[in-house]
């Protein structure tokens, strides 16, 4: 990386959706960027961010693998990382028994293993330098059993929980950890998860730029977590007092294949 005068942010999953918007906001706030996704579109995103006047290293890598995470980390060239926005992730619709097990593993390896490995690598450096901001994209999905998206919701429950634990471990170190918990957001997520024929896949969704703004502001303020949007805040508040069996049934209604109208 060339510039050493600006702070540096790593943003994963920056080729589209919430991650693209997070990286854009970082660039608008003067961060150089190391960004990653698993397709060549990350290079177009890098061009967009460079036009905002910051330095950008774009890495094409599968962040479900430790090799992919190492490749991204190496792209920082040993420069101190000021902010880590661990956002890359994907879902997987349909009934658990009908899913391809390799795809199940890819959800777990991306959302959990790769994310935690990157956080450990960067977090170690941040703790040593006595400062840093970590934003983890969890989800309100972590509050409810995800009937017809069972593994994905479980991965997000882990991230929501992990984020608070890591935050506590790092108190007094100068490193803050924040969890962004979006609700259904208008991105490539539902197409990629094979959920376009579901009720939630066809419903009106939140704007990824607004969701990213909420997350970025919470990270900069050093907050513990933030749910984007008042409807989602209401959902999560209700979820904490609703029996799990009822939540699982509610999730069936919106995520069951062909539950949509089109
Ligand atoms: N959209 C929603 O309703 C919603 C709600 C709550 C939370 N979230 C979370 O928000 C985050 C961003 O998702 P999004 O909604 O913005 O969806 P998106 O538009 O599909 O963006 C996902 C990003 O993550 C990258 N990614 C996924 N798996 C990867 C892998 N193994 N290696 C490298 N990059 C990978 C994608 O790049 P490639 O295409 O190259 O893989 C893409 O850049 C995810 O963690 C998701 O779980 C989304």
Structure description:
There is one protein chain. This protein is α/β, with parallel strands linked by helices and 262 residues long. The chain is built from 10 helices and 7 strands. The protein has helices spanning 17-28, 41-50, 66-74, 101-129, 150-169, 189-192, 199-202, 208-221, 230-239, 244-255; strands at residues 8-12, 32-37, 56-60, 83-86, 132-137, 175-181, 225-227. It has a 7-stranded parallel sheet, sandwiched between helices. Helix 3 runs parallel beside helix 4. The chain is globular. It binds NADP nicotinamide-adenine-dinucleotide phosphate. NADP nicotinamide-adenine-dinucleotide phosphate binds at residues 13-19, 36-39, 62-64, 87-90, 110, 137, 139, 182, 184-185, 187-189, 192, 208.
**Which percent range describes the beta-strand content?**
5-15%
Strand runs, count: 7
In helices, the fraction of residues equals 40-55%
Largest sheet data:
7 strands, parallel
**Amino-to-carboxy terminus distance:** 47 Å
User: Bound small molecules, which ones?
Assistant: NADP nicotinamide-adenine-dinucleotide phosphate
Radius of gyration: 18 Å
The structural class is: alpha/beta
Q: Based on Cα principal axes, name the global outline.
A: globular
Q: What is the helix/strand order?
A: EHEHEHEHEHEHHHEHH
Quote the average pLDDT: 97
Q: Low-confidence stretches at least 5 residues in length (pLDDT < 50)?
A: none
Task: Going across the biggest sheet, name each strand in turn.
Answer: 3-2-1-4-5-6-7
